[in-house]
C-alpha cells in the first residue's frame, strides 16, 4: 500500500511546522526531555544544572546516611517498599550481566522484538542466548505459551518488560510472571518496569514478594527522565538480596546524578506533568501518522513503529539530514529493514516529526 498524500487544505494545521532553517537535532528517544519541556517547566533548568562537587559517591547499599540513603527513601516511597530493599547501581544494561554473574546464570531468555541490549552486553560472555518467538501480526504471547517455552530450560534468567512496552509492544502481565515462575522452578525472572507509567501496572516491586525468584529492575532514564547519570535500582526477592548486595558493593554513583534523581523524585507533580507531555506527544504521532495510511504499530508506550513501503534507510537519512530528526531503523527480527521506531517526548517534537514525515510522503521519496 502506498502512503496517502494529505490534501493540503484538509490537512490539520496542527501538523504544519514552517521552520525557516534546519532545526537542532531531535533525538526521537523517549529517554530524553524534549524540546519545549524546560520552557514550560523552568524548575528543570535548576535540577539539570546540578553538578558534582566531588565526582562520585560510593554506596555499599547499606549505609544509612548521605545522599544515597535519601535517594533510597524516595525510591521506597515511589515503589511502596522498604528503602532497605532498594539496591542502587549503574545503568540497567550494566546491571544485567552483574546479576547474571552473581547468580551463576548461564542462559538469558528474551522475547523476540524485545530490547537487544538485554542479551547483547559485552560482559555476557559465555552466556547462552535464547529468543522466544512472538507472532509479529498479533504481537502476543499467552502466559500458557510462555510457560511451555521456559519449562525444562533449567537455570536461566527470563527478561520480561511488563505493560506492553517493548519495541514490538507485546502485552506482558503479571499472569505471565506467574505462569513462567510455576513452569520452571530454577528460573529467575527479571521484571523490567521501564514504561509502567503507561499501564495499570505501576507498582511492580511487590512481585519480588509474591514470587521468590523475581528481581524488579527500574532505570532513572525511563522512570524519572534522567539518562545522563546512568542510574538504576533493583528490588529483589529476599533469597537474592544478600548475594546481590555483596556482588555490587561498593558501587560508585555519580554525585550530581544522585542529586538530580533526588530533586526529581521530590517533585512527583513534575514527573506526572512530564509523563503527560509524553502521552500527548504519542497521541499526536498516532493521529498524524495514521493519516498517511502507512502500517503503524502503536500502544501504551511513548512511541510508534512505522513501516515504510520501500527504502526505510533513505527515509531515516532524510529525516536526519533535512529535518533534524533521529529515528531508529529496526534491524532485528521480526521487524526489519522497512520498519522504523519513532519516539517523541513533547507535543512540539511530535508535531515536527509528523510534519517531516508528511513532507517526505508528499515528495515521494523511496516508494
Q: CATH homologous superfamily of the largest domain? A: Type I PLP-dependent aspartate aminotransferase-like (Major domain)
Given as residue ranges, the uncertain stretches (5+ residues, pLDDT < 50) are: 5-23
Say how many strands there are.
15
Proportion in helices: 25-40%
- The CATH topology label of the largest domain is Aspartate Aminotransferase, domain 2
Order of helices and strands: EHHEHEHEEHEHEHEHEHEHHEEHEEEH
CATH architecture title of the largest domain: 3-Layer(aba) Sandwich
**Separation of the first and last Cα atoms:** 10 Å
Number of domains: 2
General description of the model:
43% of the residues are buried. With 367 residues, the chain is of the alpha/beta class. The protein is globular, with a radius of gyration of 21 Å. About 5% of the residues have low confidence. It folds into 2 domains: 124 residues, Aspartate Aminotransferase, domain 1; 189 residues, 3-Layer(aba) Sandwich (Aspartate Aminotransferase, domain 2), CATH 3.40.640.10. Helices cover 37% and strands 19% of the residues.
Amino acid at each position: 500500500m502506498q502512503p496517502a498524500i494529505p490534501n493540503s487544505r484538509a490537512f490539520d494545521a496542527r501538523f504544519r511546522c514552517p521552520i525557516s532553517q534546519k532545526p537542532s537535532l531531535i533525538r526521537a528517544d523517549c529517554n530524553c526531555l524534549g524540546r519545549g519541556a524546560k520552557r514550560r517547566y523552568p524548575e528543570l533548568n535548576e535540577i539539570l544544572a546540578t553538578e558534582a562537587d566531588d565526582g562520585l559517591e560510593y554506596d555499599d547499599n547499606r549505609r544509612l546516611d548521605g545522599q544515597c540513603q535519601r535517594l533510597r527513601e524516595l525510591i521506597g516511597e515511589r515503589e511502596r517498599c522498604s528503602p532497605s530493599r532498594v539496591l542502587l547501581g549503574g545503568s540497567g544494561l550494566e546491571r544485567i550481566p552483574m546479576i547474571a554473574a552473581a547468580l551463576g546464570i548461564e542462559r538469558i531468555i528474551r522475547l523476540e522484538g524485545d530490547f537487544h541490549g538485554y542479551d547483547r552486553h559485552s560482559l555476557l560472555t559465555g552466556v547462552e542466548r535464547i529468543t522466544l518467538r512472538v507472532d509479529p501480526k498479533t504481537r502476543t504471547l499467552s502466559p500458557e505459551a510462555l510457560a511451555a517455552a521456559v519449562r525444562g530450560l533449567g537455570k536461566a534468567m527470563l527478561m520480561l518488560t511488563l505493560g506492553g512496552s517493548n519495541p514490538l509492544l507485546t502485552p506482558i502481565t503479571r499472569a505471565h510472571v506467574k505462569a513462567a515462575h510455576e513452569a520452571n522452578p530454577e528460573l529467575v525472572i527479571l521484571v523490567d518496569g521501564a514504561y509502567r507509567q503507561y499501564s495499570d501496572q505501576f507498582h511492580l516491586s511487590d512481585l519480588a514478594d509474591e514470587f521468590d525468584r523475581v528481581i524488579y529492575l527500574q532505570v532513572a532514564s525511563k522512570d524519572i527522565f534522567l539518562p545522563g547519570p546512568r542510574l538504576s535500582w533493583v528490588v529483589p526477592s529476599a533469597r537474592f538480596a544478600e548475594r546481590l548486595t555483596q556482588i555490587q558493593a561498593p558501587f560508585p554513583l555519580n554525585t550530581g546524578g544522585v542529586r538530580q534523581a533526588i530533586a526529581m523524585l521530590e517533585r512527583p507533580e513534575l514527573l506526572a506533568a512530564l509523563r503527560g507531555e509524553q502521552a500527548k506527544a504519542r497521541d499526536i504521532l498516532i493521529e498524524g501518522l495514521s493519516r498517511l495510511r502507512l502500517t503503524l504499530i502503536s500502544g501504551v508506550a511513548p512511541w510508534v513503529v512505522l513501516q515504510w513501503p520501500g527504502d526505510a534507510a533513505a527515509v531515516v537519512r532524510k529525516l536526519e539530514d533535512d529535518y533534524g530528526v533521529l529515528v531508529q531503523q529496526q534491524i532485528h527480527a521480526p521487524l526489519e529493514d522497512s520498519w522504523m521506531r519513532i519516539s517523541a517526548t513533547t507535543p512540539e517534537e511530535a508535531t515536527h516529526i509528523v510534519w517531516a514525515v508528511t513532507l517526505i510522503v508528499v515528495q515521494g521519496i523511496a516508494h
